[in-house]
Write a structure and sequence with these properties.
- The complex is a heterodimer of chains A (about 120) and B (about 375).
- With about 120 residues, chain A is an alpha+beta fold.
- Chain A is about 20% helix and about 35% strand.
- Chain A has helices spanning about 30-35, 85, 90-95, 115-125, and strands at about 10, 15-20, 25-30, 40-45, 50, 55-60, 65-70, 75-80, 100-105.
- In chain A, the strands form 2 sheets. A 6-stranded antiparallel sheet of chain A has the order 1-2-3-9-8-5.
- The longest helix of chain A is centred in the C-terminal third of the chain and has 8 residues, at about 115-125.
- Chain B is an alpha+beta fold and about 375 residues long.
- Helix content of chain B is about 20%, strand content about 35%.
- Chain B is built from 8 helices and 19 strands.
- In chain B, strands 10-11-12-9-3-13 form a 6-stranded mixed sheet, sandwiched between helices.
- Chain B is globular, with a radius of gyration of 20 Å.
- Chain B starts with 9 loop residues before the first helix and ends in an 11-residue tail after the last strand.
- The mean pLDDT of chain B is about 95.
- The chains are: A alpha+beta (about 120), B alpha+beta (about 375).
- The interface between A and B is medium-sized, with 14 and 18 residues.
C-alpha cells in the first residue's frame, strides 16, 4: 500500500504540498511514483517562473510514459531540486523527502480544495 | 469494447504481481519488477517473455511455397528447410498488412507468426489471396503458446533446463523437438537485439516451461522492456514504424523486399515508391536531456512540421534521449538538424543511425 504522510496536503493529480512561512514545497505522492514505475527524468520550470494553481509546471517521466505535474498552489518558483536532474530515481526511493519545486509568494488560502492525508489515503488506497 | 483475451500464462502473471495492460487485444504483463531491471536482465544475462499473444498460421499443400511467396515480400524459395525468414505482407498499394516471421518446415508446409493485433485482419487477407491457389490455411493461434528466452545466457539456460542441444542452431534457424510427449518448435530468433530463442508449443507445455524457468531464477520480463529492447536495436513495431501508411522502404527495410522475385502483392507499388521516395524513418538523438515520445511533432528551423516521432525513450542502455521518427525525405540525411516539440519547447536533435544499440546476435 502506498505511503501517505500526515501534515501534507494532496491534490487529485497526486502532488503533495506543504506551506511554511509563505513558501510552498511541492512533490509527488508515493501512490504516484508507484503508478509511474522507474522514473528517468523530471522536467522542472525555471527559477522565477510564475505558476498558477492547477496549471502544468513540468512533468515526471517514467521509462514508458510522461505524466504532467500540476501545481496545487500559485506562486513564484524559488528553487528546483537539482538532485533530481542527476538522480530522478530519488523520487522512487522517497517521494516525500525529495521535493520537486519550492514556490514563494504563496497564499495559504490556496490549500482550500486539497485533501488532507486521511482523505487522500481513503480515496486512493 | 470487446473483452480482453488472456494468454495461457495469465494466472502466473497475476501471481507474480505483474502490472497488466491491454496490448493487441490481450491483457498482457507490462512489467513485473521494473522495466529497467528487466531490460538489463536481457542485455546482460537472460530474461523470459510470454509472447503467447502472437498469432500462428500454418500454410500447407503443394502450392504452399508459391502461395507464401505471393503474399510475402521476402523469398522463401531460396531458404532451406528449417530456416526462418523475416518480411511483410503488403497491400497492392505497398502499405503493410503485417510484418511476420515465416518458418519453412518444407516446401509444402510453412508456419507464419503474426502480430496479435493483426490476427483477424491477416487471416482474412491470407484467405482472400487463396482464391487463385489451393492451399490449406489453419489458424493455430489458440493452440500455440509462445515463450521468448532472450539474452547472452539464453543458450546455456535452455540447454541446462530443457536439455535441448542448441549450440548447432544457427541464427534464424529452428528445429522441431520432441519434449514431454509433444512436438515443440524452437528457433534462434527474437526481438531484443540479443542472442535468444523463441519456443512454440501447447499451453500445457508453455505453462510447465514457464514454471521451470521461473524456479531456476530466470527473470520474467514484460512488454515494457520488450519495447525498449527492440527499439534500441532499431527494430520496427507494427503500428509505429510499419503500418498501412508506412511501407517497408520508408522504414528502411528494403532488404526484406525481394523485388527480383516473381510477382507478389505490393511489388509494383514498392518499385514505384523506391524511385520516388517521400518519407523515411530516421533515428534522432536529442542534444539536451528530455524524453521524445511517440506522436510528438518534428519541426524544422522554420517551425514547419516535417515529421512525427514513432517511438522514443531515454535509452535504458545508454541514458541518451533518442527516438525513431517518420520525416519528409529531404530531412533524413545523417547529421541533419531538426527539433522535437516536447510540451511546447523545441529540443534540437541530430539525425543518426537508428540502431541505437549494437546488436549482439550469435551468427
Amino acid at each position: 500500500m502506498a505511503n501517505v504522510i500526515e501534515g501534507l496536503f494532496y491534490s487529485e493529480s497526486h502532488e503533495w504540498v506543504k506551506i511554511e512561512n509563505g513558501i510552498a514545497t511541492i512533490g509527488i505522492s508515493d501512490f504516484a511514483q508507484k503508478e509511474l514505475g522507474d522514473i528517468v527524468y523530471v522536467d522542472m520550470p525555471s527559477v522565477g517562473d510564475s505558476i498558477t494553481k492547477g496549471s502544468e509546471f513540468g512533468a515526471v517521466e517514467s521509462v514508458k510514459a510522461a505524466s504532467d505535474l500540476y501545481s496545487p498552489v500559485s506562486g513564484t518558483v524559488l528553487q528546483t531540486n537539482q538532485d533530481l536532474a542527476d538522480s530522478p530515481e530519488l523520487l522512487n526511493q522517497d517521494p516525500y523527502t525529495n521535493w520537486i519545486i519550492k514556490l514563494e509568494n504563496v497564499d495559504n488560502a490556496d490549500l482550500a480544495g486539497l485533501m488532507d492525508a486521511d482523505t487522500y489515503q481513503n480515496k486512493f488506497n | 469494447m470487446e473483452e480482453l483475451k488472456k494468454t495461457c500464462l495469465y494466472e502466473k502473471h497475476i501471481a507474480l504481481n505483474a502490472k497488466m495492460s491491454p496490448f493487441g487485444g490481450f491483457d498482457m504483463p507490462i512489467q513485473y519488477s521494473s522495466i529497467t531491471n528487466e531490460h538489463n536482465a536481457v542485455r546482460n544475462n537472460v530474461g523470459m517473455f510470454d509472447v503467447s499473444h502472437m498469432g500462428q498460421v500454418i500454410v500447407t499443400g503443394e502450392q504452399a511455397e508459391e502461395f507464401v511467396n505471393y503474399l510475402f515480400t521476402n523469398d522463401v524459395s531460396t531458404i532451406a528447410n528449417g530456416k526462418t525468414i523475416y518480411g511483410m505482407m503488403l497491400q497492392p498499394n505497398g502499405g503493410v498488412v503485417d510484418d511476420l516471421l515465416v518458418y519453412k518446415q518444407d516446401q509444402n508446409k510453412y508456419l507464419l507468426v503474426i502480430n496479435a493485433s493483426n490476427i483477424d485482419k491477416d487471416l482474412n487477407w491470407i484467405m482472400l489471396q487463396n482464391k487463385n491457389f489451393k492451399v490449406g490455411i489453419e489458424n493455430m493461434s489458440d493452440y500455440f503458446g509462445e515463450l521468448a528466452i532472450q539474452g547472452p545466457k539464453s543458450e546455456e539456460t535452455i540447454q541446462k533446463l530443457m536439455e535441448i542441444q542448441l549450440s548447432d542452431l544457427e541464427f534464424y534457424s529452428f528445429k522441431e523437438v520432441s519434449y514431454r510427449g509433444e512436438n515443440i518448435i524452437i528457433s534462434r530468433t527474437g526481438y531484443t537485439g540479443e542472442d535468444g530463442f523463441e519456443i512454440y508449443g501447447s499451453h500445457a507445455f508453455i505453462q510447465y516451461t514457464w514454471d521451470l524457468f521461473i524456479k531456476a531464477g530466470v527473470t520474467p520480463c514484460g512488454l515494457g522492456c520488450r519495447d525498449t529492447l527492440r527499439f534500441e536495436a532499431g527494430l520496427p513495431l507494427y503500428g509505429h514504424e510499419l503500418s498501412e501508411e508506412i511501407n517497408p522502404i520508408m522504414a528502411g527495410l528494403g532488404i526484406f523486399v525481394k523485388l527480383d522475385k516473381k510477382d507478389f502483392v505490393g511489388k509494383e507499388a514498392i518499385q514505384h515508391y523506391k524511385e520516388n521516395p517521400t518519407k523515411k524513418i530516421i533515428g534522432l538523438e536529442l542534444v539536451e536531456k528530455s524524453v521524445p515520445r511517440a506522436g510528438y511533432p518534428i519541426i524544422d528551423e522554420n517551425n514547419k512540421q516535417v515529421g512525427t516521432v514513432t517511438t522514443g525513450y531515454l535509452s535504458p542502455s545508454t541514458g541518451i534521449p533518442v527516438c525513431m521518427a517518420l520525416v519528409d525525405i529531404e530531412h533524413s540525411t545523417l547529421g541533419s538538424r531538426l527539433f522535437v516539440k516536447i510540451r511546447n519547447k523545441d529540443f534540437e536533435a541530430i539525425v543518426i543511425n537508428k540502431q541505437f544499440y549494437r546488436k549482439n546476435y550469435k551468427k
